[in-house]
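Researcher: I'd like a structural prediction for the single chain below. Treat it as a standalone chain; there are no partners to consider.
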Amino acid sequence: MRIFSRVRQRPSTDWRLATNRAFTLIDDGRYADADALLTRAADLEPWRSESWFNLALLHKFRHDWEQARAAGLRAVALVEKDTGAPDWWNVGIAATALQDWPLARRAWRAYGLPVSGDASAVGEPLGMQLGGAAVRLSPEGEAEVVWGRRLDPARIEVQNIPLPSSGRRWGEVVLHDGVPHGERTTTAGGRTSVYPVFDEIELWAPSSVPTWVVLLEAATEDDRDALELLAADAGYAAEDWSSSVRLLCRACSESRMPTGEGEGAAQPDPHDHSVPGHPGPLGHTVPDGLWSPERECGLAAPASLVRGLLDSWVADSPDTREWRDLEEVC
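Model: Treating it as a single chain, here is the predicted structure.
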């Protein structure tokens, strides 16, 4: 779209100064001040799609989804690309946050993604088959990367049991950003698979299933695995935090990292900053790879079921299994 034949002109000095200053303020968390500057930039050059893209980006940071949708729509009205413009991705995130499913479908299609269903369908887009990915919960706090199932380009259903510090639960759906910060790799059959790590924006759908922590005595890995299978068969989850949790610095977390699953999983991880020999979230390795019977386990199950699950697990092999110190933590 052209307005006064000025679309391709270099932005004015005032526009650039206002925009650059605004993003400096955004980095400092001064969103209100940045809003005033980006609004001024849009007033200076309303024909420039970047003016509205930047405002949509700011409103996304503020979780002001109505404003993000409005600015995003003005941005896409001015872009000249037929497909693939990042402006459409921001529109898709805002539409998903607002459950504006017709607009979300339009946005993903305009970006170039296949979406099933009629464009006017009111229900959420299903069957996009985007596979698995990782999501960084609470990226500005005590960040934690967990695995999840991608429902669409902006939502992930959490499939790990997050640590209580994240404030998130198993089965919750989180809205996430579009640009990955880091990757996780798995290796099987000599082939390496790479999965993106997205940053959470906000909780989209909460879970009613509480998180519990319990100390187990599991004589073997098979004993531990039996509890995880028992919980899964009941429709819930158990996770051995003593082996699944590792502490990473920010630089490691935002780089390409092996998951510790698949081939070579037993090898020492030079990026693991946890403390060897201490079970639980502060360290999951033991000297020489020996099995430690004491395990700290997360459970996602209703209060009415959790003790029954643990008792059933012990009853199946009372000589090799025991539990104690069950506590609801999230």
